[in-house]
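Note to self: keep these together.
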Amino acid sequence: KSINSLPISLLYGPTGRVDKNIPLVTGHTAPVLDIDWCPHNDNVIASASEDTTVMVWQIPDYIPMRNLTEPVVTLEGHSKRVGILTWHPTARNILLSAGGDNVIILWNVGTGEALLTLDDLHTDLIYNVCWNHNGSLFVTTCKDKHLRIIDPRQHLVVAEKFKPHEGARPVRAIFMADGKVFTTGFSKMSERQLALWDLEPIALQEMDTSNGIYLCGKGDSSIRYFEITDEAPYVHYLSTYSSKEPQRGMGFMPKRGLDVSKCEIARFFKLHERKCEPIGYDRSTKDDLYPDTPGPEPALEADEWLSGKDAEPILVSLRDGYVPVKNRELKVTKRTSWTAGPPRATAKPRSALEELLEEIRSLRQTVQAHEKRISDLENKLWPVSPNGTD
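Structure:
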C-alpha cells in the first residue's frame, strides 16, 4: 500500500507492532512510491512520490518525539509522479530518479540541482533502473519492450535489446558484478522466465567469485536463491524459502548490515499488509561467506564523476563484523551565481511566481533550521524525562 509517510520505528527497530503514536517521516502530499537508503551515509534516505517530488531526509540516531516534516532538500524537476530512485554506487551525493514523464534525472543532492536530464531515450514508462558496479553505466527496462544500457554522461544508449522476454508483462534487469545483465520476465504464455545476457559492447572483467541472486515476486510466498557462474548452465538453482503469507514488497539489507557472528549471509524485510517481517539466511560456517563489500566511503565526488572519471567502490572487510561510522550530517549548499561557474544559458528575468517560489524555499530552510534546533533540545531532554514528565 502506498503511503505518504514512513513510521520512524521501522528505521530503527525493534521488530513488532508499531505504536499508533510513533513519529513519522512525513512531507509528501501524495503517496510515496519508492525509497532508497544512501550507500554512503546510513542516516540519509531519499523518497519519491506521486506529488512529482523527490525528498532527501536526515534520520537522527535517536527516535524523535515529533514527526520529521522538513527534508534536507526537495528535488523538483519531474512533471509526473516519480516511481524510481537509486543512489550512485561510488560517487558522493548523486541520486537518480525516473518518473512517469519517461524522464531520468541525475541530481547532485549536495547542491540540490539537476546535473543531467535524459528526456529523449525512453518512449514509454520506465520499469526499473540499475547501476553497474562502478556507476559508469546503468541498465533500464521500459514499457516499449526495450532493454537499454545507457552512458548518462554521454547521453547515449550503448547497447539495446528488444524483447528480452516475449511476454507483455514488465521486465526487470540488474547489472551483475562482472558486467553481464540478469533479467526476469514472462513468456508469451505468461510463464516466468529468467535470463543472463552478455550485451556488447560492455567491457567485461574476470571475477574470481560467483554471483548470488534472490528472486521474489509481489504476491508470492517464496524466495528462490540462484548462483551464477561461468560454467554452463550458468544460472544454478540452489534453494527456496517458503512461507504461508504472500509478500506485498521486499527490502534487502546491505552486506555490512548483516550479523557476521551468526554467519548471516542475507537478510530481507518482507512487507505484509500490516507488518514488516525480517527474514535471515544463515550458514553454519564462515568459510568464504564474507568477501570484502562496498563500504560507506564514496570513491568519487559528484563533480569528478560528472567530468568523466570512474572508480571502483571502496571495499571494507567483514571478517570481524562491520562497525558503523559516526553519524554524518548531510549538508546542502545551494549554488549561487558566483559559485556555479559560467551560466549555461542567458538568464531570464525572474517572474513574480519564481520570486514567490524562492521566498517559499527560504522559509522552508528557516523552518528546517528551527525544527533541527527543537529536535536537538528534545534529544538532550530525553534521557532526563523519557515520558515527557518531570
